[in-house]
Amino acid sequence: MFEATRINHKNLSRQNMFRLLLGGMTALLILPVILVLGTLIYKGAPVISFEFLFANPTNGMTAGGIFPALLGTILLVIVALLASVPLGVAAAIYLSEYAPDNWFTRAINIAIINLAGVPSIVHALFGLGAFVIFFRFGTSILAASLTLAIMTLPVVIVATRESLQAVPMAFREACWNMGATRWQTIRRIVLPNAVTGILTGVILEVSRTAGETAPIMFTGAVFFLPFLPQGVFDQTMALSLHLFVVSTQVPEMPEAVPYGVALVLIALVLLMNSVSIALRMYLRGKKKW
Amino acid sequence: MVNPEMQFEVQDTTQNPVKLGVENLSIKYGSETALEGVSFNIHEHEIFGIIGPANAGKTSFLKAINRMDMFNPEMQVNGKLEFSGHDISKVRNVYGLRRRIGVVFPLPVGLPLSVYDNVALAPRLVGEKDKAELNVIVERCLRRAALWDEVKDRLDSLGSMLSGGQQQRLTIARALSQDPELLMLDEFSIAVDPVTTMRIEDVLKELKSEMTIILVTNLVQQARRLADRTAFFLDGKCLDVGITEDLFTGDVSNQRTRDYVEGRFG
Q: Are A84 and A156 in contact (CB under 8 A)?
């Protein structure tokens, strides 16, 4: 009574075909990641040492370490996050929880999505004009970080808005019905349950901020500094720009150095991300529905 | 044959003061009419049943009382709703109004909080921070919702981990924590097993001595068991209001009412 009919056979072979196809696509995606990481580790690992991480570059950057660039990237990311996360989350809360659904709000939403598509060199020129020249921050960590913050703002806003909207409407209505104000509802019910999604946005932002070169080139990062930055109004070296420099601008650069710099950059991004991933996992474990 | 128990419960609640006056109430969503020209009074300490098929305007009626139109720009409320003699459209502090009205939804909405925090939420919203006081409120409300014995050992577990019937009693406890003068239940038994339904019905009979209850239900027999007076809504109009038993056995002004309660359409 359970003999397979022709249509059963057809369904089954089609199912196998699609599983193979989808699995193959996934493998194709993983392949470049493995190749890139593998090459970097294979060629870059030999130069990684305590000195490479924590010493100043010497000999026209062909020897010594990359500490100023490493520190510079960390500073740039932190200051950029301090600027963009509060701003982006606040804007997303307003757009998702308060703003009426009209043409104006929709126009703002479209503008934010378009902002994400603006090339980073345009952000760089904007940052140069706005922060370096108009606000007189000079080429500095502050100007570079704010440029990076503007560039990554759409990511934070979109991620936050999506995670706010993933919180069921019934929760809000139940809360409003009890006499809670909108803010009390956001503070006690909506935000605690959206936090994991917001962190996802922050993770994406860290990766992009740490890796971008163009926006910081004109606004605060320099090829070489003989000293470490003392404050946010100083210029700084940065890993991404340093990688560009040692790969293209310095003759007689030992081949392993650029790979080493790239490896450190990727490791730094992974390290920063793993903090927020760990935080996200901890909070998701506590997720309440 | 008149059931002696029924006889005992029937009392003339229309002598009580008016808790909610409804006068020529109409509700529209955009150009679509949800409710039209509804007028009646709901008296203190009565269970007022609202029966009727889907799309009759029952839920919209409850939303209007709680001023939920504020959150939906499409929703327009016309006519007059008086809560304890105050025109609710002129109430400036709508949060104060909503705190006096407890709402229970068709599907239990266990907020993503612990059992304890679910019930403590309403007092906390108005600034109650004293732990001992909150403990007292939580225990009292859970007891009155007939849930305390089942959850007293796991107040810290998530409200959403409870069974459907327990969650619905949790939402009742949460509504009670507001100390409401009016309790509105919107088809509370839709996702609840029969045993829990009977327990909640017993709870409601007790609560009647302390507050006014509006019971929207799709179960005609539930209205008959509980409600002192009942209104029949159909297609956005209120076709009948009266002593519940009269809808079943006495004179009704509209034949549709009798057809509905006898199950000829639904």
A: yes
Contacts of A289 in chain B (CB under 8 A): 110, 112, 158, 160
> How do the domains of chain B map onto residue ranges?
4-100+180-261
Given a cut of 70, whether residue A286 has pLDDT beyond it is no
Please provide the average confidence, as pLDDT, over all residues in chain A: 89
Could you give the number of structural domains in chain A? 2
Q: Which of B95, B157, B177 to mutate to test the interface with A (most CBs of A within 10 A)?
A: B95
Q: Does a structural domain hold residue A121?
A: yes
Q: Longest C-alpha distance within chain A, in Å?
A: 83
Same domain, A14 and A157: no
Three-state DSSP class for residue A62? coil
| Tens digits of residue pLDDT in A98-135 | 998 889 999 999 999 888 889 999 999 999 999 999 99
How buried is A48 (Cβ within 10 angstroms: 0-12 exposed, 13-18 middle, 19+ buried)?
Answer: middle
Give the domain range for residue A13: 6-47
**Using a CB-CB distance cutoff of 8 angstroms, which residues of chain A are in contact with residue B60?**
none
CB distance B95–A188 less than 8 Å? Answer: no
A165 and A124 within one domain? yes
Using the Cβ of B174 and the Cβ atoms of chain A, whether some distance falls under 8 Å is answered with yes
B122 interaction partners in chain A (CB closer than 8 Å): 178-179
What CATH number should be reported for the domain holding residue A108? 1.10.3720.10
Given B73, B107, B112, which is nearest A100 (Cβ)? B73
| Set of chain B residues whose Cβ sits within 8 Å of the Cβ of A189 | 111-113
Whether the full predicted model's pTM is greater than 0.95, yes or no, is no
Going by their DSSP bridges, the two strands B182-186 and B212-217 should be labelled as parallel
Tokens linked to A196: 């994991």
Amino acid at position B5, single letter: E
Tens digits of per-residue pLDDT, B88-133? 998 889 999 999 999 999 988 888 889 999 999 999 999 888 999 9
Residue B166 identity: Q
Interface contacts (A, B; CB < 8 Å): 67
The pLDDT score that the predictor gives to residue A25 is 95
Q: Is A256 on the interface with B (CB under 8 A)?
A: no
| Domain shared by A77 and A13, yes or no | no
> Which CATH code for domain B4-100+180-261?
3.40.50.300
Which residue blocks in chain A are alpha helix, DSSP H? Answer: 6-44, 50-54, 67-93, 103-116, 120-127, 141-165, 169-177, 182-185, 191-211, 214-217, 239-248, 256-285
Q: What is the ipTM of this complex?
A: 0.85
| Cβ neighbours, 10 Å, residue B89 | 15
| CB of B98 closer than 8 Å to CB of B106 | no
Q: Which tokens in the block code for residue B23?
A: 């006068």
